[in-house]
Amino acid sequence: MSTPSKPLPVADPITAPFWESLRAHAMQLQRCDACGRFVFYPRVVCPHCGSRALTWQPVAGTGVVHAFTIVHRHPNPAFAAEIPYVVALVELDEGVRMLTNLVGVEPDPAQVRVGMPVEVVYEDVSDVVTLPQFRPRAG
């Protein structure tokens, strides 16, 4: 019996620049030209001020763990080989929060902490899809 495939994101016209930047290993996020705040997830209107003037800009790819959980069971059998793993809400230096996997650390509450500095790493899962993950960084 073959292992089922994991579901992968599908880009649409609004999110395509984000996925293309990940594929290039150079993450970009939208920034509002009116209020100057970064926006994530990609959308048509700034959630902070309502402006439609959003521009894609490179980001540092660094931040801190805002919250996390350790996954011990997953309803999709495609994830069974990776259990346990860490899912983290990472707050990027630019102020947005991104739900992601934390890699390069033991999936143990003693090894992960809120406020832990992290940096993006790119997982090329196919010719078309690259996922952003984060790993601990010094400092």
Explained architecture:
By secondary structure, this protein is mainly β. The protein folds into two domains: 11-59, no CATH class; 60-139, Beta Barrel (OB fold (Dihydrolipoamide Acetyltransferase, E2P)). The chain has one helix and eight strands. The protein has one helix at 16-23, and strands at 28-32, 38-39, 54-58, 62-71, 85-92, 97-102, 117-124, 130-136. A five-stranded antiparallel sheet has the order 6-5-4-7-8. It is globular.
Chain-wise SSE layout:
Blueprint: H1 16-23, E1 28-32, E2 38-39, E3 54-58, E4 62-71, E5 85-92, E6 97-102, E7 117-124, E8 130-136
Antiparallel strand pairs: 1-2, 1-3, 4-5, 4-7, 5-6, 7-8
Question: How many extended strands?
Answer: 8
Measured between the Cα atoms of the first and last residue, the distance is 45 Å
Helix content: under 10%
Find the CATH topology of the largest domain: OB fold (Dihydrolipoamide Acetyltransferase, E2P)
Characterize the largest beta sheet: strand count, sense, and whether it forms a barrel. Answer: 5 strands, antiparallel
Q: What characteristic shape results from the CA principal axes?
A: globular
Name of the level-1 CATH class of the largest domain: Mainly Beta
Structural domain count: 2
CATH architectural name of the largest domain:
Beta Barrel
